[in-house]
Prior knowledge:
- Four copies of one chain form a homotetramer.
- The first copy, chain A, has two domains: about 200 residues, Medium-chain alcohol dehydrogenases, catalytic domain (Quinone Oxidoreductase, Chain A, domain 1), CATH 3.90.180.10; about 140 residues, NAD(P)-binding Rossmann-like Domain (Rossmann fold, 3-Layer(aba) Sandwich).
- In chain A, α5 packs across α6 and α8 packs parallel to α9.
- Chain A is built from 13 helices and 17 strands.
- The first copy, chain A, is globular.
- The N and C termini of chain A lie close together (about 10 Å).
- By secondary structure, the first copy, chain A, is an alpha/beta fold.
- In chain A, the strands form three sheets. In chain A, strands 3, 5, 6, 7, 8, 16 and 17 form a seven-stranded mixed β-sheet that branches.
- At the A-D interface, β13, β14, α10 and β15 of A face β13, β14, α10 and β15 of D.
- β14 of chain B pairs antiparallel with β14 of chain C.
Amino acid sequence: MKALVYNGPGLKALEDRPKPTIQAPGDAIVRITRTTICGTDLHILKGDVATCAPGRILGHEGTGVIDSVGAGVTAFKAGDRVLISCISSCGKCENCRRGMYSHCATGGWILGNTIDGTQAEYVRTPHADTSLYPIPEGADEEALVMLSDILPTGFECGVLNGKVAPGSTVAIVGAGPIGLAALLTAKFYSPAEIIMVDLDENRLAVGKRFGATSVVNSADGGAAQRIMKLTGGRGVDTAIEAVGIPATFKLCEDIVAAGGTIANVGVHGAKVELHLERLWSHNMTITTRLVDTASIPMLLKTVQSSRLDATQLITHRFKFAEMLQAYDTFGRAAETKALKVIIEA
Amino acid sequence: MKALVYNGPGLKALEDRPKPTIQAPGDAIVRITRTTICGTDLHILKGDVATCAPGRILGHEGTGVIDSVGAGVTAFKAGDRVLISCISSCGKCENCRRGMYSHCATGGWILGNTIDGTQAEYVRTPHADTSLYPIPEGADEEALVMLSDILPTGFECGVLNGKVAPGSTVAIVGAGPIGLAALLTAKFYSPAEIIMVDLDENRLAVGKRFGATSVVNSADGGAAQRIMKLTGGRGVDTAIEAVGIPATFKLCEDIVAAGGTIANVGVHGAKVELHLERLWSHNMTITTRLVDTASIPMLLKTVQSSRLDATQLITHRFKFAEMLQAYDTFGRAAETKALKVIIEA
Amino acid sequence: MKALVYNGPGLKALEDRPKPTIQAPGDAIVRITRTTICGTDLHILKGDVATCAPGRILGHEGTGVIDSVGAGVTAFKAGDRVLISCISSCGKCENCRRGMYSHCATGGWILGNTIDGTQAEYVRTPHADTSLYPIPEGADEEALVMLSDILPTGFECGVLNGKVAPGSTVAIVGAGPIGLAALLTAKFYSPAEIIMVDLDENRLAVGKRFGATSVVNSADGGAAQRIMKLTGGRGVDTAIEAVGIPATFKLCEDIVAAGGTIANVGVHGAKVELHLERLWSHNMTITTRLVDTASIPMLLKTVQSSRLDATQLITHRFKFAEMLQAYDTFGRAAETKALKVIIEA
Amino acid sequence: MKALVYNGPGLKALEDRPKPTIQAPGDAIVRITRTTICGTDLHILKGDVATCAPGRILGHEGTGVIDSVGAGVTAFKAGDRVLISCISSCGKCENCRRGMYSHCATGGWILGNTIDGTQAEYVRTPHADTSLYPIPEGADEEALVMLSDILPTGFECGVLNGKVAPGSTVAIVGAGPIGLAALLTAKFYSPAEIIMVDLDENRLAVGKRFGATSVVNSADGGAAQRIMKLTGGRGVDTAIEAVGIPATFKLCEDIVAAGGTIANVGVHGAKVELHLERLWSHNMTITTRLVDTASIPMLLKTVQSSRLDATQLITHRFKFAEMLQAYDTFGRAAETKALKVIIEA
Lengths: 345, 345, 345, 345
């Protein structure tokens, strides 16, 4: 089969690989019908993700059709259409039993990282019963690809952890795909204000179109001051960090109101400074989270009931053979204005 | 001053009364600019509310302008425009400190019940600092009258207690003003399904217009069966009882899913049957609540940010001199299709 | 093998039965080392439990050693010592994913009810990976038998649902084994007052010994009055119903404070009256729950760290061959003062 | 009257000052019967607290008797015995209404900071109705002095924010008075393990006596490693930072389990490093909080019901005239083994 393979920093190729086979009773083999590319895939290609070794098939998102299942799989059978979670979850270990699938003892983020992933014609998915979700009759499969990772990430790490609530004030720092996913799902809770912050005017315009009540371009260093002014000097109830660098985390520290929350979504490569000399008495909360995707069933209901139009995030579509072109388009997002790209089998 | 006075069962009149005066340091005298009529006022007029004695000026909702304040009032001064909560709260007692203002040791629902109310040119409001709310510059005062009682009641007793959540399934039994207030505020949380139940086709049509995803006419006794079918046999996550009779409570018992909640909003005059022989193992919750109006500041933000159009509930408008006509219109709601009526000074 | 078999109302016998065998990939066969008798077993024997057909091996509690496992079982292997939950949970269905194992689509309370149970030399346990718990090295196995059902039931249905909290006031109506289990686990949260209510002076004395701060004998009908007096007229924050009849539920309605919770634990055979004509405005909560046993891992930690002495509930010990005698002793608890009996293989 | 006055860095004196008088309708004048010294008082004396100007009477803890009240005070009258909260709360502003008294618009920590405090014969307490608490008949007044600040601080900032729960694992970094207050109140929730960390063997011994299950001396830099070993490599569910320096915060980062919480209690004078390059995916929470003292009524109940022996924290007792000696003893805690000192009028 064809697969997108990471061959070391800066190197990727569409290669021929053997079709995967069942290795454990809980496995399923899924024929991929649609996949996409994540910012994390670009990080891997830069060599930033130590756990991902050269030779790995990338990809942790997608939909497909069950090809075969192991002896222990009871929830799925060949022919079933499924949504693949980016997180593999055994459903049995202590962390899975408390809903923290991201830290599953034998799962977590392994697809396209420590085992072969979904940017291929077929993928082996461990713990299939608790890591795949049935696609409802009549569902828009493209929309559901957005439920593999990006929407649960924005929702769980940003919105849920950030305790977004009716009437509250939210700032989302970073209007890339993940910040926009946080924006779309923040609207579930009807906050009064959603302030979108970015350096890129195009992305801010998208934020505005998606429902931001204000946008702030942080290029000139005056973002904190403008947000404090927008909030009457009070700051925001929820600051969602969706970039992953010290400067944006610092901005969140500067704008969070007393009693508020900084919900970190960004993947950080370096430590940040936490100004406890000021914040120790600020009655604030900081949260971090690797997405658990425990919210997939709920998000599926919001998509099926048209509360959430997940397809808004999709800007480009490719065929599987155009995978390298898809990477190129997604990798040059500032120019191409790409958010999420769909790659169809 | 003119005031609407309850003179015993079936008897009401627009009478001349002396303007109220400050009686305690925490009091304010408010000149009423707008008030409305509540279903509870009709209950009083039927003689159903034992605590309300003949001679009482009715009304517990409204907006106005501060006329004078007692020596202990620090948050308001003459001339301030204010929203009046239907609940008087001292802010000091154990129940107030935990946000349960409805059970304030020296307050609660007293306006238009045990002390004179707001259907008058002036009203004395005890505990003014913690029972009145400043009206923001530029706010639509008519909309805010809906925040005195009906919207907080629908929201707190129905939506909050009912734990309405993104993707969840809600049934609201009773599409009168209070059920519709629950519907409008349930939408804050983006449930997947909101099923509205009533006997009156007009009210169901309003429910549909306000955002119900399905409506069920319960006239033929088949409502439970239809709702179970609508929910794939699962039942609803939240059943909001907004009528107050045994039959509608029974319907809620019949349709609540395992793990779900019945949030009672209705004012009941008789006991109901609770079928614990079936429900003991149903992992369900039943809640009751007299509105605390603790959500007024939050609701104000949703109105100010256009997340909530409170004026949708207003169907008729009267001048103060037309108060009896307003009662007549509101009292014959089935014919007049009245929801909430505004009475302007 | 020998097994205690229900042969229709009033009829039970210790019979010879074939040793169970693996029927599904997720099954385990467990050799029972210790089991016990539950009040529910007595209900079955009276013919009160329609789901349990004659011919059934009773019992849903116990510890044992894994004899064999199906192909899909990954968490256990032959020889492992295990604690058996009274609730079988697939870990995969919607209810299991939210921790509501009691309503598992293919599990729930089935052991000793719709499939053969633990009062036998061997038992087949479906969904073994998520329904059995490993017994830690050095643990007291007798204590752990109390974690199969009675302690999770008292804790989850009574204490957790009842929101027992530091400084709060709790009444437990019914000082049988289940009420006492609620008492022992209520102490986890350091309530200021725990009032134990029963008709039986012996059980009240046990309650006192287990940590109740007051006991009330309800024989004379004056219990509500005495509890209101004990609480300064306020009532209790939490009323735990641990009997299952209308009179005891009524007592809970009479004593729950505004803002409080009635947590139902009792198994009811008849409907009760809910006095909403008074309680609609009482800001109260009623909960019901079939135990999920989701708290077993936590309870195990409290037993292992000596926060909870589960063996206090054990009053009698029998050998497996004395099973009928154990039933007799447990069935005449008023005379024998039996709480829980241990039956050892 | 006599009062302990801060006269600039390093300078304090017992001086004669005029008795305070009512300045606002909500004020009360309290004759102090008992007070104590807080670590924060020592910080002020070092010149570390910029808001506290020379000339200020120190002290924010204590009990007393109402001498006189302003016209707006309704909950207290002359002669009432009261407990003084370290936090003044108006009960009316947005933050007070949500229970965040520490950020009261016109209160917060002002006593002995921006207005004169309790280390004097009399003190003026603003917002008396909502900042003082009645002392119950028969209560031990010395114990209650511990409720002004130290116990609510340990409980709210450490235990509540840290989500200590039955069966959980807690580490408290810093066994000074505040860490020990966290320890005493952590026990309310029956965690399985409480690991106390300090450099001082005496304080660790006190921790052990107060209920720590393990103690770790962090002098050799191996604390993190030993705690990870104690927890089977998992880390702790709750890490309470009760020192306020970068090294102890770092220790908390190193030992918190995935899904766990760092609850900061310490007053920090410098920023810390937050290792998001590792922790971004750790599903963790960090909280900060200036004590709200919202828990005083609850703590009072636990003291009155003997769930909490607050007097354990008291090591030394002085008369008011010996105030300087009390400071000396408290200031040399390492030698004197002082925890809290009581200064009696």
